[in-house]
Amino acid sequence: MKKVLLLAVLCYSNFTFAQQKTDSVYERAFGEFVRYYNTIKPDSMAKLFNDNSDNWTSDNLKKQHEEWGKIVAFKYIGPFKNETDVEGNVMVYFKVSFDKKAYLKEGSSNVFNGKNIHAAAIALNNENIIVGRRLFTSSPSVDSLIAQY
């Protein structure tokens, strides 16, 4: 009986540790993104996202800095509504605070909420590379999620 109880405690401890490790891996990956965003390092961001597109250029990042400013804080929220990227990796959300307010720009494809607090989500693959992202998103359900934190 003691062995069964000990085994149950060890399994629970390992499950809890594994969950915390996963959370910290997401926080570390997003922290790297924040560092590269704030210091305008497009090459590092492209490597972080394994993205060879033109999304990450100095001009694009400088424009975002002009509109939103730097990221001054972020907080891990966690998964939301079992959302995944196209490959089935779990999307994990963060509450992100900027030093400027962002407003909807005419012709913009992004939605801004007129605040300096936004949500961002990333998905990591098995190698802990960011393979999915939803950066600085806003919708009624996402806004209500980040309002809780």
Features:
4 helices; 149 residues; alpha+beta; Nuclear Transport Factor 2, Chain: A; single chain
Characterise the protein shown here.
The chain has 149 residues and is α+β, with helices and mostly antiparallel strands. It has a single domain (2-147), classed as Nuclear Transport Factor 2, Chain: A, CATH 3.10.450. Helix content is 42%, strand content 26%. The protein has four helices and four strands. It has helices at residues 2-38, 42-48, 58-68, 140-147; strands spanning 71-84, 90-98, 117-124, 130-137. The protein has a four-stranded antiparallel beta sheet, sandwiched between helices. β1 (71-84) and β2 form a beta hairpin. α1 (2-38) runs antiparallel to α2 (42-48). It is globular, with a radius of gyration of 18 Å. The relative contact order is 0.13.
Uncertain segments of ≥5 residues (pLDDT<50)?
3-21, 107-111
- Please give the domain count: 1
Number of strands: 4
Distance between the termini: 42 Å
Kindly state the mean pLDDT as a whole number? 77
CATH fold field value:
Nuclear Transport Factor 2, Chain: A
Mind summarizing the main beta sheet?
Answer: 4 strands, antiparallel
Q: Considering DSSP H and I runs of 4 or more, what fraction of the residues is helical? A: 40-55%
User: What percent strand?
Assistant: 25-35%
Cα shape: globular
Which sequence of SSEs, written as H and E, runs from N to C?
A: HHHEEEEH
Q: Specify the CATH class.
A: Alpha Beta
> What is the radius of gyration computed over CA atoms, rounded to a whole number of angstroms?
18 Å
Number of helices: 4
Structural class call reads alpha+beta
Strand order of the largest sheet: 1-2-3-4
The CATH level-2 architecture is identified as Roll
